[in-house]
Design a protein that fits this description.
The protein is α+β, with helices and mostly antiparallel strands and 395 residues long. Helices cover 34% and strands 22% of the residues.
Length: 395
């Protein structure tokens, strides 16, 4: 079995299928109705119960309401062997939550008039990326962000081109050329789905690598530098890095995959398509980004992204069913039902990590939850309980 393809393409399907089964049959050890736990102690009991049942090595979280963190905490180990406890300053690989950050970075260039969401991506790339089955139909920037581009990463994922313990060599431009130029070693007609661009949404990581390259081409800066200047620095995200080489290893949670009767530590992983999932960050840093999304693009009196573009980003354009759940995708973000709450945000799942960043637009309460373990179910119950806790607080 292709291990990495299973992780990036199918593991989250197993997570969601299991959590639905659990909610139906009530076979977990945690209380049957976690949403009744609105005190901190009640939520902590639920978190510890989920950690024990799912063998999660650590859980770190932040609960935000409007523009404030109202509670943050961490339990368990960032490094089990060395008994290094996780904290709210522990850096975790956040996986696909990265896509939302990549989207906002690109939208800042839309705001400045340098990018048109409905323009052919080749206008900005000086390439010829077209679905060979539909050569006369352009792929637009918007299609990258809502997963309707018809680009597929299934063929790429079969090749196991992941880097363990170091950053993948080469630039974004090199990677995209290898995928889409006929002379490239990763080029294949299988890099596309069988339907025309803009017809339906199919989840694809490579969309966001292409989006990252567009940011580079239009801004004249490398993607790492652009996101730091336009997003991380103004938001005070001082512990967020795209590359392992820039990340203090002593602050980074080890990642663990569940195996029979225990867990197995993994080497740190990196990806060629890094704008799709390689950010390493803390719950406090990501909570700042989340609060900016919740507060109509404003942070500490500075408008990071205008409210009109944020509304476009948050507005569902395509519905996608994955693992028995319904996702209503906007641009780099989606609505999904968590118990009785319809939440907006993005989750992540990768070898040795599971993550959630979501908020309730009706109550302006959000949650960031990270674990350094491949969850056998999901972080759904923890997320629901934290959202419920936040809603009940008056501040």
């Amino acid at each position: 079995m292709n291990k990495n393809r299973s992780i990036r393409s199918h593991l989250w399907l197993i997570h969601f299928a299991f959590v639905l089964l659990i909610l139906l049959v009530g076979c977990t050890k945690e209380p049957s109705n976690p949403l009744t736990f609105t005190s901190q102690q009640g939520v902590i009991e639920l978190v510890r119960s989920e950690m024990a049942w799912q063998s999660l090595n650590s859980v770190a979280f932040a609960v935000v309401k409007n523009d404030e963190i109202i509670w943050s905490d961490a339990f368990g180990f960032a490094d089990r062997k060395k008994e290094i406890h996780a904290s709210t300053d522990t850096r975790y690989l956040i996986a696909s939550i990265s896509k939302t950050i990549t989207t906002v970075a690109l939208l800042t260039l839309v705001e400045s008039g340098q990018i048109d969401l409905d323009e052919d991506i080749n206008t900005y790339l000086n390439l010829d990326i077209r679905n060979p089955q539909f050569p006369n139909q352009p792929i637009t920037v918007r299609m990258l962000l809502n997963h309707s581009s018809s680009i597929s990463d299934e063929n790429f994922l079969r090749k196991d081109l992941f880097c363990f313990g170091f950053d993948c060599p080469g630039s974004l431009e090199d990677f995209i050329h290898r995928l889409f130029q006929p002379s490239g070693d990763l080029f294949s007609t299988q890099n596309f789905f069988g339907q025309a661009p803009g017809i339906e949404a199919n989840y694809c990581n490579i969309n966001f690598a292409v989006a990252g390259l567009i940011v580079e081409k239009v801004s004249g800066m490398d993607f790492d530098s652009y996101t730091k200047e336009k997003l991380f620095q103004p938001l005070g995200m001082t512990k967020s890095e795209w590359f392992l080489k820039n990340t203090p290893q002593e602050e980074l949670a080890l990642t663990y995959s569940l195996v029979y009767q225990g867990s197995s530590v993994n080497p740190h992983i990196s990806f060629m398509d890094y704008p799709a999932g390689s950010l390493r960050s803390t719950v406090h840093d990501i909570s700042a980004f989340l609060r900016m999304l919740m507060m109509e693009g404003e942070w500490n009196g500075e408008q990071i992204l205008n409210a009109e573009l944020l509304e476009i980003m948050k507005s569902p354009e395509y519905r996608m069913e994955r693992g028995g759940l319904i996702f209503d995708y906007g641009l780099g973000i989606y609505f999904r039902q968590f118990g009785r709450h319809r939440l907006l945000g993005h989750g992540g799942g990768e070898q040795g990590i599971t993550s959630e960043m979501v908020f309730d637009p009706n109550n302006n309460v959000g949650v960031v939850v990270f674990t350094n373990t491949t969850s056998i179910v999901s972080l759904e119950l923890i997320t629901q309980a934290l959202i419920e806790y936040g809603i009940q607080q008056n501040n």
